[in-house]
Amino acid sequence: MRNKVSIGVIIGNRDFFPDRLVAEARLDIIEIFNNLNLNPILLEENESKLGGVETFGDAQKCAQLFKKHEDEIIGVLVLLPNFGDEKGVAETLKLSGLNVPVLVQAYPDDLDKLDVARRRDSWCGKISVCNNLYQYGIKYSLTSKHVVHPKDAAFGQELLDFAAVCRVVRGLRRVRIGAVGARPGAFNTVRYSEKILQRNGISVTTVDLSEILGHANRLTKDDAVVKANLDKILAYAPAGKTPDEALIQIAKLDVVLNQFMIDHALDATAIQCWTSLQQNYGCNVCTSMSMMSENMLPSACEVDVTGTLTMYAMQLASGSPSALVDWNNNYADDEEKCVLFHCGNWAKSFLPDIEISTAPILGTTVGVENTYGALAGRTPASSLTYGRISTDDSKGIIKAYIGEGALTDDTLNTFGNRAVAKIPDLQGLMQYVCRNGFEHHVVMNASKTAGILKEALGNYMGWEVYQHN
To answer: Is the pTM above the cut of 0.70?
Structure first.
């Protein structure tokens, strides 16, 4: 089960509406949060009128509470059981200093309860609250229905989706990526702006590949840490025909990469592979990259920093590993299907038939015997979210495209890591990718999280996002 996350809760109130609605809302949301494994941070009933926020004094108390828990609060939910005081909500968020996503909910009225003693007017109040948040420059999210009861199952899912949005935003604003080695000379497609990323809170730590290989070459097969990592590798995937000498090389490199990540507190890596590793060290790094990605420390090849950034964003949204793939081949004459491919570093979650193997295409130039460590495996049918984050240096922005489709079990007779994807209006998507200068790399995740990513990347990160429908 995912670790419980904390969300601040503001219960809006207005003095000429029934106060008991605030007490009822407080009980509702505590029950719902408990059912969804979420932790609510909200005023106690004795800290304000029934725990609601109405006056400036209430706003101060709630803001202080949020400040006390600022390290754990990933988002704020605004509940409007009645019209609510729009200034109280906005002032709480302003005074708290929190820069987190905000979800605004409003309760529905009952047609038989529109008398003075029981009416809510939350429909109207929500508009006023949003108007004030807009004036204050506070970004916020909306429920799909203008008013919805918290006990409605649809709201429960929206709350979970909102928590996912919060995870993505929080993660991207503090992510640390390791760039291992230089970009392969032939891959202009993976160039990116480190400065634009840094402006958005994304830090990149670089290291020369020679340093990594130098440390790896100083290790021996008898070192305890090498033996331990070799055991992990053999427990992770069948070795197939991979010789023992190659497995030792892979294990030594894995030791050094893991230590590099620990030393620099990295969340993700992008590693030079093509073709220095094979020519100067004698194996592929794909197995190590797969293991990292499976353990939620995504790793992309060809020093594709924004590729691994996309992997990280998708894993935050879904809670499951991502994989970097090539938009690689048409699938016969089916205009809504294509082949996704890479020579072998996808997370094990995508490869039920995983095996350590070689990279035949790369082997044509560096020798197949120097490419052990690539993985072979076919990805079966599943849900699919795909997308790509990229820096557009000429515009000085970060841009992205995202969408959903499906991975299929269609016949595919080839090698490496491979899958068949079915995407509505695939031809239109390829037009968009090509016209807007996106890379040949795309990221896939076995989920349906495009809406979450659109909200997080577009609304809160402020990036230019296209969602393909």
So the answer is: yes
